[in-house]
Design brief:
The longest helix is centred in the N-terminal third of the chain and has 70 residues. The protein has 872 residues and is α+β, with helices and mostly antiparallel strands.
Length: 872
């Protein structure tokens, strides 16, 4: 046995006996004190709760009476909605527990002021100014409406419990507990109907208390360490509880939220549930509890103190206040006192053993010093050294200990430095990873989510829709209509500022649960999560278009824009892939572009079919150039004066390997849109020039004067147009005077001064110019003489009905007269009858073209026609 143990053990046994006796007496006397303290605590708590509830429910009754009196004496006018809302707003400022205070009319109109969880006040109203929808507005610090937060189309105050209860009672009354309409929670209202002097019902005013505040009050009470308190109605349903549990449960059905009162016996809190079971076994139901009582029962063999106090009010409330305190909460203090006593006894033991310690000190001190130093080292304090004098063996041991401590201190310092560097590297890597993660899922310019984030969110929403029946959502694909003009005119820096402003406006137009993203360029997408119907998506699209009609200011300059929007609804097709939804929204957006821009279109399966056909046609069109599938047909241009063929107009045809011969009207618009028209147009020009040169070099068919070739709008706007035409004339050997280029009115007007310069260069080369389809565009007659045009071609829409339409005759005569005044010749398209030819000859029209002379012919048929040398 160690020496110190032999010295200390007798004292320990003596003190232990004293501590045991003291603890036994403390526990015995403390048990009686527990009963007295528990009774006093329960009485004080139930009295305090009773008084708080009494004061609490008087507030809405007082406010309702004040408002009713204000209306009766004329101080408050129900017709002055602005004054009424301000009055209710000030009352909400004064009476913090209320939420909301309202007035509703017999026509279903309502004006109320409500309080959000963060304490801010909102004005809710429904009247003619809101188109009978239930609007919710934020307010400033003066009670004025600021911003529209929410619109509800189904709310009718006349169906709410506080309204129906007041009308039924015909006097000031209190409602039963009911669920809030606009948020989660239970409410209790004081309400009063208002009548005019004739006794006609004007409406109902009410003031409402949230029972969640009553639960918060109960939760704030400290009832021992684990005591609980709760309030129940005679029906056994919870009114409020000190636990975190809500006295109601929520359920969702058909997209609508409903709440159900929670009975105390079904509470998830075990003490509440078991206490309720005990009370029902004792009283049958809560209606039989008519006076304050103190009870005891056991849970898990542990005694529980129960205090019951009925609460009734004149307005019809019948509640029971229940306070439950475990006996262990009180005994804990008694046990703590017992432990304190034991500790004091141990202190006496230590004092008693001092003598023995002093006696053994000179023997045990060196060993104790080494032991303490070793423990400090184990706890991380490495700078521990020990000096031992006297016993030689212990001195050697102390030196070895000191050497070990020094080596550990040096090693640990190196480890700490390495660990510090490692932590710094880890922090840097985490920051870099977070930045990379943010950059990977957000657009660097606007800060909106990018395509990857949007697709991931769309996938999750699509999966949720498959799991929940009747779950509906929509994707909006938005493309700005004039962004290229803004970018080109103001510069890319302003263009970036413009995109940031557009992104900010889009975020304003959607809910916090929705997702607005930028796919790139001027394309944006929006995911509308959990909507009720297609009309919700349409409203958002209209809201965006309305928002975009407002001017944007970029460094003092106002900029306007519009957007084309495609809408894809999740219920339209049984979607499996998120990308397909995005594709269909894009398809609908493209349809909106085609139909005139600045509008929205809703996707339907027919659009996808058309898109596939269009994509196939575009792919075939790109291959058609490589596969040489294009052909030129030639329609003769005839001199009306002498009836001889002067030349041909080269007309493009596409010999599709599967669909056969395709007319230009079926593929030229697509070629224009994709830009392929430029390459196709130069091929057609080269082929026409080559064919014309071959004809002119032939001995038998060299009488032709002109070959006419159409230039598209995109061809005409190419910067290298003059060089390309010059190269084609040079490579084919055709004289420029034998070439007539036909240009539409729109091509000239869209290119302005540049068009005039290009036309002048072409005329200098010797090429003659013709305005094609004259009369169908928007030419300015005042500017027509400024362009170096040789020929006007009257559109067939004027010539075809020439036989019986006097108005068309006058138009044609006017055009011919105008052309001759400007020194131009006239070619009439669409000549199909002798009568039309005779009429044009009488008007001195120089040339004609149409089925009366010949349909468009391939090369061989055109040569045959020339050899026949027909005259008309």
């Amino acid at each position: 046995m160690p020496l110190r143990v032999a010295l200390v053990v007798p004292f320990v046994l003596q003190i232990s006996a004293a501590v045991g006796l003291t603890a036994f007496l403390s526990l015995k006397n403390g048990q009686k004190a527990v009963n007295d303290v528990a009774t006093q605590l329960q009485n004080e708590l139930t009295t305090r709760i009773h008084q708080h509830i009494t004061d609490y429910i008087e507030i809405p009754q007082l406010v309702t009476q004040i408002n009713a009196n204000s209306v009766h004496i004329g101080e408050l006018s129900l017709k002055d909605t602005k004054s009424l809302e301000r009055h209710l707003w000030h009352q909400m400022q004064l009476f913090k527990p209320l939420s909301p205070i309202a007035f509703a009319t017999t026509q279903g109109e309502i004006h109320s002021v409500d309080r959000f969880n963060d304490g801010s006040l909102v004005i809710r109203k429904k009247d003619q100014s809101t188109s009978n929808n239930y609007y919710t507005y934020t307010t400033d610090n003066q009670g004025n409406t600021v911003k529209l937060l929410q619109v509800n189309q189904t709310f009718d105050p006349r169906t709410r419990p506080w309204y129906t209860n007041a009308v039924k009672a015909g006097k000031t009354t209190c409602t039963e507990i009911y669920s809030y309409f606009s948020s989660s929670g239970l409410a209790f209202s004081a309400t009063q109907p208002l009548y005019d002097q004739k006794g006609t019902l004007l409406g109902v005013t009410n003031a409402t208390l949230s029972l969640s505040q009553l639960s918060e009050f109960l939760h704030s009470l400290k009832i021992g360490r684990s005591g609980k308190t709760f309030i129940v109605e005679h029906s056994g349903e919870l009114v409020a509880t000190s636990t975190a549990e809500q006295p109601f449960s929520l359920s969702y059905k058909g997209g609508k939220k409903t709440s159900k009162r929670l009975k105390a016996i079904a509470s998830s809190d075990r003490i509440t549930q078991l206490t309720t079971q005990y009370l029902q076994s004792q009283f049958g139901n809560f209606r039989n509890i008519s006076s304050s009582q103190q009870l005891e029962f056991e849970i898990d063999h542990k005694r529980q103190f129960v205090q019951l106090m009925p609460f009734t009010a004149d307005c019809g409330l019948n509640w029971v206040i229940i306070v439950v305190v475990p006996e262990a909460d009180f005994m804990e203090h008694i046990q703590a006192n017992t432990r304190t006593t034991i500790l004091l006894c141990f202190g006496a033991l230590i004092i008693a053993t001092v003598i023995g310690v002093i006696t053994s000190h000179w023997i045990t001190e060196p060993i104790l010093c080494l032991s303490v130093a070793s423990k400090e080292i184990a706890n991380g304090k490495l700078n521990q050294t020990v000096t031992v004098e006297g016993i030689n063996e212990l001195r050697v041991l102390a030196q070895a200990h000191n050497q070990m401590a020094t080596q550990l201190q040096e090693s640990f310092a190196e480890i700490l430095e390495a660990n510090r560097q490692l932590e710094a590297e880890i922090n840097e890597r985490k920051q870099a990873e977070e930045q990379l993660r943010h950059n990977a899922f957000h657009d660097a310019l606007t800060g909106l989510p990018n395509r990857a984030f949007f697709i991931e969110r769309l996938k999750n929403t699509l999966q949720r829709a498959k799991q929940q029946e009747n779950y509906l959502f929509a994707v909006l694909f938005l493309d700005l209509d004039r962004f290229k003009v803004i970018n080109d005119s103001l510069g890319h820096l302003k263009g970036d500022q413009f995109l940031i402003a557009i992104a900010n406006r889009l975020e304003v137009c959607v809910r916090s649960t929705d997702t607005a993203a930028r796919l790139g360029g001027d394309e944006f997408t929006i995911l509308l999560d959990e909507i009720q119907s297609l009309s919700d998506a349409i409203k958002v699209a209209e809201r965006i278009q309305q928002e975009l009609t407002l001017p944007l200011e970029l460094d003092g300059q106002e900029v306007f824009t519009t957007a084309s929007i495609g809408i894809a609804l999740s219920s339209t097709v049984d979607y499996d892939q998120a990308e397909n939804l995005l594709r269909d929204a894009d398809t609908a957006m493209y349809r909106a572009k085609v139909l005139g821009k600045a509008r929205y279109e809703v996707f339907n399966p027919g659009m996808y079919t058309n898109a596939l056909v269009r994509l196939q046609l575009e792919n075939d069109l790109r291959r058609a150039i490589e596969r040489h599938e294009f052909q030129l047909y030639y329609q003769p241009i005839v001199s009306i004066t002498n009836g001889r063929i002067l030349g041909f107009e080269a007309l493009l045809r596409w010999q599709h390997p599967e669909r056969g011969l395709i007319c230009p009207t079926d593929f030229i618009p697509l070629a224009e849109e994709t830009g392929l028209i430029v390459k196709i147009g130069y091929w057609a020009l080269h082929e026409a020039c080559r064919q014309m040169q071959n004809w002119r070099l032939s001995d038998r068919i060299n009488s032709l004067e002109k070959i006419s070739v159409n230039l598209s709008v995109k061809q005409f706007s190419q910067p290298d147009l003059i060089e390309q035409i010059g190269e084609i004339l040079h490579s084919t050997g055709l004289d420029a005077g034998s070439l007539m280029l036909e240009i539409t009115e729109s091509a000239i007007l869209e290119n302005g001064d540049e068009a005039n310069a290009a036309l002048s260069e072409l005329r200098k080369m010797g090429i003659e110019l013709s305005i094609d389809d004259f009369g169908t565009g928007y030419s300015s007659l005042g500017r027509l003489h400024n362009f170096p045009i040789s020929v006007l071609k009257i559109d067939r829409s004027f010539v075809s009905p020439i036989d019986g339409n006097g108005k068309n005759l006058e138009i044609i005569e006017t055009i011919i007269t105008l052309a001759h005044k400007l020194g131009m010749d006239v070619t009439a398209e669409g000549v199909e009858t002798k009568e039309q030819l005779a009429f044009l000859r009488n008007l001195n029209c120089e040339c004609g073209q149409g089925y009366f002379f010949s349909r468009p012919l391939d090369n061989a048929a055109a040569v045959e026609l020339i050899l026949k040398n027909p005259q008309w």
